[in-house]
Amino acid sequence: MNKALKYNISLVGAAMFCMVMLISSCTTDPNSPGVEYMPDMYRSPSYETYSANPVFKDSMTAQLPVAGTITRGEWPATASIVNALPYAYPNNLDGYIAAGEEVKSPIQKTETTSAEGKAIYEKMCMHCHGKEGQGDGQLIETGKFPPPPAYNGPALKELPEGKMFHTITYGKGLMGSHASQLTKEERWKVIHYIQELQKL
Question: What share of the chain is helix, strand, coil (3-state, %, to 5)?
Fold first, then answer.
């Protein structure tokens, strides 16, 4: 068999292969992608959140971050690395007292941080604590919950900022934790604004 004939047979074979592939990928369904080569590579299967993980048998599909994980971008570049570390005070009375004595705001208090804190306060705190921190928010007016103490009242007027941070982080009494809703920086900005309400 001469080279020209071999070449022609190869060419015809390649053309037929391409034609078969083209025809096999055609479909009348406009939403169908046709024949897919290794579809799991680009169309990954969806698993139900918190269902059993088919890869790791003793775990769930959605996992909590490792204890002590620091959220990426949680702190501005100017913040001290010490303040970016995980919050070291435990959720108990000893931790609350120690935070009051040792924890200080790493963010300089300015009109801007207080204004940003006010905006966060109005979204996250005002419904219970009230517009001026008097414990008369809309949720309290329903009569279903007891009012929190006023920020400028005897219980909270001299409350150290470390105890405020501890309370926002873990929650206290009927107030739940806001650590999953507010970054550390946002918590400090709210505290800067609360300190203004303490002076009213």
Answer: 45, 5, 55
Please name the fold of domain 90-198: Cytochrome Bc1 Complex; Chain D, domain 2 (1.10.760)
Q: What are phi and psi of 108, to 5 degrees?
A: -65, 135
Question: Cβ of 163: how many Cβ atoms within 10 Å?
Answer: 19
What predicted TM-score, i.e. pTM, was given to this entire model? Answer: 0.63
pLDDT tens digit at each of 200 positions of the chain: 567 666 667 777 888 887 777 666 666 777 776 667 676 676 777 778 778 887 777 777 777 777 767 666 555 554 554 455 678 899 999 999 999 999 998 888 999 999 999 999 999 999 999 999 999 999 888 888 899 999 999 989 999 999 999 999 999 988 999 988 998 889 999 999 999 999 88
Residue-range domain boundaries for the chain: 90-198
